[in-house]
Design brief:
This protein is α/β, with parallel strands linked by helices and 424 residues long. It folds into two domains: 43-188, Leucine Dehydrogenase, chain A, domain 1 (Rossmann fold); 197-349, NAD(P)-binding Rossmann-like Domain (Rossmann fold). It is built from 15 helices and twelve strands. The protein has helices at residues 5-12, 15-30, 34-41, 89-105, 126-140, 159-173, 197-213, 229-240, 263-273, 287-290, 330-338, 346-349, 352-366, 372-397, 401-420, and strands spanning 45-54, 60-71, 77-84, 112-118, 149-153, 221-225, 244-250, 253-256, 283-285, 295-300, 317-321, 342-344. Strand 7 (244-250) and strand 8 (253-256) form a beta hairpin. The longest helix has 26 residues, at 372-397. The chain is globular, with a radius of gyration of 21 Å.
């Protein structure tokens, strides 16, 4: 028994197996036939490339990169590219499938894709990162494009990375093609409001959830795990909306103030010291224990598998708003459901980013750009309607929100496939 436990834990933390578990549950409740399940479950294309790069010291290293296009039934594949030393094909597969369901949940005309390169950006120079990015782009260039697959930033990539991809693609096509990626700098065809979009989407759905609990933002205690682009922006926007941010959790620890944290002051402190710890207006706290603080909204906004079967029973929150991709394992879902925690699943909660990416793609193709007020207004409309769609589906089918989101997404993608038919 002791020898089998690590394997079970490893299986729980496998993102592809988690995605498959949730898929199977939703497909069963929808009554999908075996043939449609096979079509929906199988990635349309998986690409593995090996990237030779000349390093700054003259050595040649070879990096491995992936691009998985899970579905193109409702439109071009859409999804980020991450650079990290622990990228795996299973992880990229799972994230690509989540993008399919995420785009379907918010009803935008994209399928799902995801990419990754196995590397450690913390030990690479800017020139080395540029070489990796451009060669990776060249290796997958025939599979991406505005009508095929539209990458975006993800973990350890940013608007500069997207600018390199756009330029490489454009040089090969002998014309500027801004719509090949999203998340670009505004001066290169990026959209206003894009950098705030994922955090803003979390704010919008959290506000919708508060209405169900009769809570006002000023009476709402929030714990945020992750203080990067998503968590940091969500913290700023939620604080501006009147929420009381009582704890911020990062990789090296957490800070806690039950009266509320001045988010802008904490951001300044981190910029000056390199860490959120030892912030004068809050107490340092163990990062794992901070996850179990009593709060009204818990917003995990960092990596996968933060909430799992070993700790889900210890959460003390009314609302779990999943700002990260896959922060909760499938094995923890039933524990959260039994405890009555209102879950806003990742494929809804963090869909603000891909929604504004869709806006960027539309603006690039039109050659006509919107002001930030218009972007934010249209984002709110889509997020509010999608929240109502998911919660309405949950009530209609007597399932939890995550299962409802998957059922809604699978239903929409399956419907598109049935309309198109199977080409033979």
């Amino acid at each position: 028994m002791i020898a089998e436990a690590p394997l079970a834990l490893e299986n729980e933390f496998n993102p592809w197996l988690a995605a498959e578990t949730r898929f199977n549950e939703a497909a069963e409740k929808l009554g999908l036939d075996d043939g449609m399940r096979k079509v929906l479950k199988s990635p349309a294309r998986e690409i593995c490339v090996h990237i030779p790069v000349t390093m700054d010291d003259g050595r040649i290293e070879v990096f491995t990169g992936y691009r998985v296009q899970h579905s193109i039934a409702r439109g071009p594949a859409k999804g980020g590219i991450r650079f990290a030393p622990d990228v795996t094909l299973d992880e990229v597969r799972a994230l690509a499938s989540w993008m399919t369901w995420k785009c379907a949940v918010v009803n935008i005309p994209f399928g799902g894709g995801k990419g990754g390169v196995i590397c450690d950006p913390t030990i690479l120079s800017a020139i080395e990162l540029e070489r990796i990015t451009r060669r990776y782009t060249a290796e997958i260039i025939e599979f991406i494009g505005p009508e095929r697959d539209v990458p975006a930033p993800d973990m350890n990539t940013n608007e500069q990375t997207m600018a390199w991809i756009m330029d490489t693609y454009s040089m090969h096509h002998r014309q500027t093609v801004t719509a090949v990626v999203t998340g670009k700098p505004v001066n290169l065809g990026g959209s206003r409001g894009r950098s705030e979009a994922t955090g803003r989407g979390c704010l919008i759905v959290a506000l919708q959830a508060l209405k169900r609990f009769g809570l006002e933002p000023s009476n709402t205690r929030v714990v945020i795990q992750g203080f990067g682009n998503v968590g940091g922006m969500a913290a700023r926007l939620m604080a501006r909306a009147g929420f009381r941010i009582i704890s911020i959790i990062e990789y090296d620890g957490a800070v806690h103030n039950p009266r509320g944290i001045d988010v802008n002051a904490l951001l300044k402190h981190r910029k000056e010291t390199g860490s959120i710890l030892n912030f004068p207006e809050a107490e340092n706290m163990d990062r794992d224990e901070a996850l179990f603080l009593e709060c009204d909204v818990l917003l995990p906004a960092a990596k996968e598998n933060v909430i799992h079967s070993q700790n889900a029973s210890r959460l003390r929150t009314k609302i779990l708003c999943e700002g990260a991709n896959g922060p909760t394992t499938a094995a923890a879902d039933h524990i959260l459901a039994e405890r009555g925690i209102f879950v806003i699943p990742d494929i809804l909660a963090n869909a603000g980013g891909v929604t504004v990416s869709y806006f960027e793609w539309v603006q690039d193709r039109q050659g006509f750009f919107w002001n930030e007020q218009l972007v934010n207004g249209r984002l709110e409309e889509i997020m509010v309607n999608s929240f109502k769609d998911v919660t309405g589906y949950a009530e209609k089918h007597a399932v939890n929100n995550r299962t409802a989101a998957y059922m809604l997404a699978l239903d929409r993608v399956a419907f598109a496939i049935k309309l198109r038919g199977i080409y033979a």
